[in-house]
Amino acid sequence: MPEGGDRPAQTEQETEHPHDTEDLVRLVTLIRTEQGWTQTRLADATGVPESEIARFEAAEIVPAKPMAMRLLEGMGSIEPGLF
Fold first, then answer.
1. Nearest CA to 46 among 25, 67, 23?
2. Maximum Cα–Cα distance for the chain, whole Å?
3. What is the pLDDT of residue 33?
4. The whole model's pTM is what?
5. Alpha carbon 61 to chain centroid, angstroms
6. What is the dihedral sign for C-alpha 65, 68, 74, 78?
7. Span 69-83, mean pLDDT?
8. Quick one: which of 35, 72, 77 has its CA closest to 53?
9. Using one digit for the tens of pLDDT, what is the confidence trace for 3-54?
10. Is residue 63 a contact partner of residue 22, using CB atoms and an 8 Å limit?
């Protein structure tokens, strides 16, 4: 702990609950498959490497929210900059 008893600032990675990550991964995967998109198409639409999308869908990327928002925006599921 820093001098003076102040708590260090928490990062998003420290505060994102594992269930939040699971929910975001499920949401992106569900929307992608409902729209008939492959990981390749999503990669092309978002500029995110397909390998990163695969890692995201395997819940290997934490925090998940920034990536989820980028992928959802790319699929037209949310307005850019909404979150």
1. 67
2. 55
3. 97
4. 0.74
5. 7
6. negative
7. 80
8. 72
9. 444 544 444 445 778 888 999 999 999 999 999 999 999 999 999 999 999 9
10. no
Q: How far apart are CA 32 and CA 28, in angstroms?
A: 6
Q: Evaluate whether 65 touches 24 at the Cβ level (below 8 Å).
A: yes
3-state secondary structure the chain: CCHHHCCCCCCHHHHCCHHHHHHHHHHHHHHHHHCCCCHHHHHHHHCCCHHHHHHHHCCCCCCCHHHHHHHHHHCCCCCCCCC
Spatial distance between the Cα atoms of 29 and 71, rounded to a whole number of angstroms: 10
Averaged pLDDT for residues 49-72? 95
What integer pLDDT is reported at residue 42 of this predicted model?
Answer: 97
| Of residues 53, 62, 82, 56, the one with CA closest to residue 18 | 62
